Amino acid sequence: MKSGALIKTLTEHTYPVAVSPGGKLLALVSGSDDDIIKLWDVSSGALIKTFTGQTKYIWAVTFSPDGKLLASGSGNGIIELWDVSSGALIKTLVRHTDSVHSVAFSPDGKILASGSWDNTIKLWDVSSGALIKTLTGHTDWVNSVAFSPDGNILASESWDNTIKLWDVSSGALIKTLTGHTD
Question: Which end of the chain has fewer surrounding CB within 10 Å, N or C?
Fold first, then answer.
């Protein structure tokens, strides 16, 4: 990061990408339609593990704050939680009706947010896999979700050209940010 020098190039899988806490592992998903997540060691460039089981193109991956879980979202509206050390599928979360394009863990790792092309955001209890609440208000596809550092606010970005800020505990819409035209 200091020099900006290229360290390694990984060409087999290219999108989406997630870096583990501490920067030691890299989760990459194929740019093709093979529905595979590959875990790479950042320093050596070695392939460590392959996660298989998704049945539709994977659009989103993210590590939990402790680096023990990996969440993936796919084109069939399914979110899967994986154990990073074993590669085992732990939970399958099914409630979206269209592609999941963004997943984010809360800073404490207890809540997972997902943004979907069904125009909704869903908040999930990570330990049980239960749906906590559905946030509605976007009028088009939700492409991105992100928690504030304290975990109290969730930001969502949509093809409706807005960013919405949500209170995580109540699910209430706090503010809609406008100004983008595309």
Answer: C
Q: Pairing state of beta strands 163-167 and 173-177?
A: antiparallel
Domain 17-177 has CATH 2.130.10.10: yes
C-alpha 138/C-alpha 4 separation (Å) is 37
- Measured CA to CA, the distance from residue 5 to residue 151 in angstroms comes to 33
CA distance 31 to 38: 12
d(CA 91, CA 15): 23
The overall pTM is greater than 0.70: yes
> pLDDT (tens digit, 9 = 90+) per residue, 85-134?
998 999 999 999 999 999 999 999 999 999 999 999 999 999 999 999 99
